[in-house]
TrEMBL record:
<keyword id="KW-0067">ATP-binding</keyword>
<dbReference type="Pfam" id="PF17760">
    <property type="entry name" value="UvrA_inter"/>
</dbReference>
<dbReference type="GO" id="GO:0005524">
    <property type="term" value="F:ATP binding"/>
</dbReference>
<dbReference type="GO" id="GO:0005737">
    <property type="term" value="C:cytoplasm"/>
</dbReference>
<keyword id="KW-0677">Repeat</keyword>
<keyword id="KW-0234">DNA repair</keyword>
<protein>
    <recommendedName>
        <fullName>UvrABC system protein A</fullName>
    </recommendedName>
</protein>
<keyword id="KW-0228">DNA excision</keyword>
<keyword id="KW-0963">Cytoplasm</keyword>
<comment type="similarity">
    <text>Belongs to the ABC transporter superfamily. UvrA family.</text>
</comment>
<keyword id="KW-0238">DNA-binding</keyword>
<dbReference type="GO" id="GO:0006281">
    <property type="term" value="P:DNA repair"/>
</dbReference>
<dbReference type="GO" id="GO:0004518">
    <property type="term" value="F:nuclease activity"/>
</dbReference>
<dbReference type="InterPro" id="IPR041102">
    <property type="entry name" value="UvrA_inter"/>
</dbReference>
<keyword id="KW-0267">Excision nuclease</keyword>
<dbReference type="InterPro" id="IPR027417">
    <property type="entry name" value="P-loop_NTPase"/>
</dbReference>
<keyword id="KW-0547">Nucleotide-binding</keyword>
């Protein structure tokens, strides 16, 4: 017996590759019809007062948000409040949407759409928890070992061989560290690896 799987995505989204806006009359829009392709970068341009924001924010975005909130339970909707339907005859092919203001409060020049909308946080969590990490050098899957497992691997794979176990002492700082080298020598260490200007060399 096969179980029928249902989707929360409206049927008109699966049937069309475009968004159709019919009879938009919000603000200074005068009963216009617009067809916008999906999965593409679309730019709305025009003179000041021509209705760019009315179409993008007050019509398409407003209807997308209204449909998204309607999927919530009645209990959740009572805290969000109702949203009025924009003055438009029909909009098809529209999925839940995200709106980004033209002027953001962030001063960071490295801000992106992902960080502003906080989608980046969810993607980072998804890749960290659900994905498998692979080494870009060897291509092998990266796994986490306990301290005991690391010791067992070293003893089993490098038995009878010389092994260097390295740990960073200074990273990303400038200065002179003659006293640090002396302290390391007194603790019994005989080798130090220095990294300068992307060149590696060892000294004793």
């Amino acid at each position: 017996m096969q179980e029928k799987v249902t989707s929360n995505i409206p049927s008109d989204i699966n049937e069309t590759a475009q968004i159709e806006v019919l009879g938009a009359r919000v603000h200074n829009l005068q009963n216009i019809d617009v067809t916008i392709p999906r999965n593409q970068l679309v730019v709305i341009t025009g003179l000041s007062g021509s209705g760019k924001s009315s179409l993008a924010f007050d019509t398409i975005y407003a209807e997308g948000q209204r449909r998204y909130i309607e999927t919530f339970s009645a209990y959740a909707r009572q805290f969000l409040g109702g949203m009025e339907r924009p003055d438009v005859d029909k909009i098809t092919g529209l999925s839940p949407v995200i709106s980004i203001e033209q002027k953001t409060t962030g001063k960071n020049p490295r801000s992106t759409v992902g960080t502003i909308t906080e989608i980046y946080d969810f993607l980072r969590l998804l890749y960290a928890r659900a994905a498998d990490a692979y080494s870009y050098l060897s291509g092998e899957k990266m796994v986490k070992y306990t301290d005991a497992q690391i010791l067992d691997l070293i003893l089993s794979k490098f038995e009878g061989k010389s092994v260097y176990i390295l740990s960073p002492m200074i990273k990303g700082r400038k200065g002179h560290y003659k006293e640090l080298f002396e302290q390391i020598r007194k603790k019994g260490f005989i080798h130090v690896r220095l990294m300068a200007k992307s060149k590696k060399f060892a000294t004793t």
